[in-house]
Amino acid sequence: MKTRGFTLIELLLVVAILSATALAAFGLVSEDRAQIRIDDTRNRLNILRRAIVGIDGPAYGGEVRLSGFVADNGRLPASIAELRSNNLESSPMLSQLARSVKFSGNTDTTCVQTGTLDDVGPAAAAITLTKGHRGDYLSGASGAFRDGWGNVGTETDISETSTFDETDDVNFGWTFMPGPPLQIASNGLDNLPDGEKDARTTIAEADWTVDLTGWKVTIRNRTSASLSALSDLQAALLVFRNTGTNGEWLRYSSGKCDTDIAVDESCIVTFPGPGACPGVPIGRHLLVLLSASGVYPSSTAPVTVPLDFFPGVQLPNATLEVRP
Asked: pLDDT value at position 163?
């Protein structure tokens, strides 16, 4: 008996089926690999966001904790490299430590205190806040902090709407747009800025600052004598900002008490709209009682209270008590 083999058409059909199956399997594997890179990029964007504005929502048993670059330095970073080091040649910054809170009788139009800055409190016991760059905000990640595609930046580009920098030693291949709002984007597989196709995170002003407009602070008299309205009592919030090799202190001032404050009575002062002043950044700042001559009282321990500010959260209730 003669044995019958496969015809050429049958062999071609088998080859076609195997090829289609291989292509389908390859496509699924490629899609899986692409999705892994996309997910990794999104995770790294979340790390960048937390590094800048801190943990979003309660942490550690439901308590909201201050963390992130803004809370320590009072401003947004100028690049991703600033999240790794406080000693960049382009923008060296003060390292984190307990800093004496400073007050001056002068401010410019943006609420930056100018002229001679004096410690708040007696020289031997000046009031401090822990401020400054704490080293590395990127969860201990080593090496260049790239997106999931491993993109490497090559140049600085200027678009019609904003300036962004993707030079590799500054932003590790990410597109960094200082804004406002601040945007950090991955250029994806092709490493080209394709608009909405690229993964990105956006940090708007409301994500890292607080508006003091309408904030009310109580000034209470616990002494044995009336406090005169002629003293020009008012509240002021002192805020640190890490700039260059020197830090600066901003002052946001409330209105003044317009009546005498009797014993065990109170005066409520209100903070005006921001005007030209920047929004108050996330962080712990110092609320201070002022009089016509400066910090009240200037010769002994001043009337102060440290307060934590978070965006999207009700402004803290605050009372400044004048005691004997």
From this structure: 46
